[in-house]
Amino acid sequence: MSGTLEVSDLHKQFAIGRPAVDGVSFAVPAGEIVVLLGPSGCGKTTTLRCVAGLEHPTGGAISIAGKVVSQPSRGIQVAPRQRDLGMVFQSYAVWPHMTVRQNVVYPLKHRGVNRTEAARRVDEVLALVGLSEYAERPVTALSGGQMQRVALARSIVYRPKLLLLDEPLSNLDAKLRLRLRDDLRRILKAAGMTALYVTHDQAEAVVLGDRIGVMRDGKLLQMGSPDEIYNRPADLFVANFTGATNELTGTLVARNGAFGTVDFGDGRRGEASLLHEVGVGDKVRLALRPENIRIGGNGANTFAARVTDRRYQGTQTVYDVELFGRRLEALELGTAARHEVGVETMVSLPREGCWAYRDEGKGGEE
Ligand code: ATP
After folding, report:
1. Structure pTM?
2. Ligand 1 centre and the CA of 79: distance in Å?
């Protein structure tokens, strides 16, 4: 099992602009995969580059396996090659003039591992990434997905304490991306790697991460298990960025433990989950996932609405529904689109999937 990463109050201020990383703290325990997720420019790559030693932080501290590798206040900045890291990036960092085996054995040769042991480890890691049959091929005769497997094999063959991955799947076509995404978790777990993974793709984050940290404007907004991030988002931005793209507004008029009654105007009232501090009388914004809105529902929290558009996508259909003068998206699985455009219908909003946040007067969306 490999080591642990600790990032404490990390700051990075470039010569220009606002802080790229603004007080980020988290830990990656041994054997865990932590994913930093966020939109372009949120600071996730800069955080990863600070861990790699490719950027000099302007504040805070980073330690790997108990050893401080960056701490500007004490003048500590350990060089990247002395950090015992593996790195996998977007571009396939493989040596084109070498075979798969030569690529993968290189870091072991470089570290003085004897031939027999090196050959054994290369065979083991090639089997792990599913490239045993390709060992003697020049890497130029491989697909993009296979090249990325070579890059991965080369980064884990010497068993670094920590593996850093920066959008490693983003250059692959959609189908390969899904396959390698699923394989990647299995490979990292089988190798017992401790990993920090950066992506803007929420689906990737959920499949790969033991924990996900959602970043925005240089800040870590929430760090939690995929289940926590998906079912108890810390704020409207996290909810929105992880797919709760619908929003309603209202005023909280009563509290009842974990739930509250929201007045949507014109006497229409419904129940919502109160995941965070919200007081009676507060203006609230509600986040809802398209898949949690039921068209044609009945029972509690059911309101009259109208279907204004539908987009058939083969195995699912996305509907636009107009509710309280707002456009919401609702998603239904199945190969048949059941509701016609223009119909007046009821929609139900299960209160467990309807999260109320105090309206702070700023945008939840980018
Ligand atoms: P992306 O997914 O687009 O790579 P990101 O979330 O990884 O985005 P960063 O690359 O970490 O974001 O950038 C964070 C902020 O720091 C951005 O506002 C970016 O413009 C800024 N930044 C990054 N590198 C530099 C640099 N060398 N000089 C000045 N500003 C920089």
Report:
1. 0.89
2. 21
